[in-house]
Amino acid sequence: MPSTAKAPTSHPAWDNLSLTYQPDVAQLDNIKAHLDLVLLSLEALTGLGSEAMLQAAEALDLTDRVGDRVSLWRLRQASPLRKGQGRKRMDVEEARALVMIICHLANQHQELVRRGVTLLEQLTEQNRPPHEAALLGDYLDNFNNMYEERMEDEANPNQLSYLALKLLIDLLFYSAPNGTRRLWVSLMERAK
Fold this sequence. Notes:
Helix content: 55-70%
Oligomer: single chain
Low-confidence stretches: 1-9
Strand content: under 5%
Radius of gyration: 17 Å
Number of helices: 9
Number of strands: 0
């Protein structure tokens, strides 16, 4: 009888996402939570939804890991920060797939990400609040609303704004050609 185990996806960026150690359950929870927050940030900025994420999975030949809305929803619900979380455990291969999808989408929207970060830098230099720029104001509102709607934790608006702006800056790095490696290393460091 043939094996039903899925072979690792063959993609050049996949090989850059190696492990120096095997994350334990708590570390995988940290990875899941951070990946979900990065996706939330990307959604809040670009308005992307699950369809765009599934198209990215198809373009990257990752449909064996993220093939439909249900599998994507289950992966997102794996975050320990989510309301109703715990429906599925995420494995390392699925984390790799989400890293590649995130960086692919960030790269596709690099101009918007860059514009947001540039506005943030300008307003910071002028000692003005970020929400004064329409793009950043909309992003912060979207992020806060999505976070409150989807996450268990009730963070105060200042904490959420700080998190959203930090994630926006991170997206700029993840949109670069070596973004998958940067995000992967960041996840491994965060998980320790």
